[in-house]
């Protein structure tokens, strides 16, 4: 929660419905190299999760949608 990450890659699903979801994510800016940050979560075991994309736009993602986006953490300033 609150930690920054960079989109590393997008998972290519075999399911046609999930491919449509992936295309929508790409259209709104979920692309490799973009920074993301989780800004809010629903209660444990519930959806969605609120993600800030590029420091400007916030999107609510369901687990199914978030599973298509692979991220890597960004080292925070002052970390060794």
UniProtKB/TrEMBL annotation:
Keywords: Iron. SMART domains: FeoA. The keyword Oxidoreductase does not apply. Residues 1-73 form the Ferrous iron transporter FeoA-like domain. SUPFAM superfamilies: C-terminal domain of transcriptional repressors (SSF50037). It holds the Pfam family FeoA. One of its GO terms (molecular function) is transition metal ion binding. This is Ferrous iron transport protein A. It comes from Ottowia testudinis.
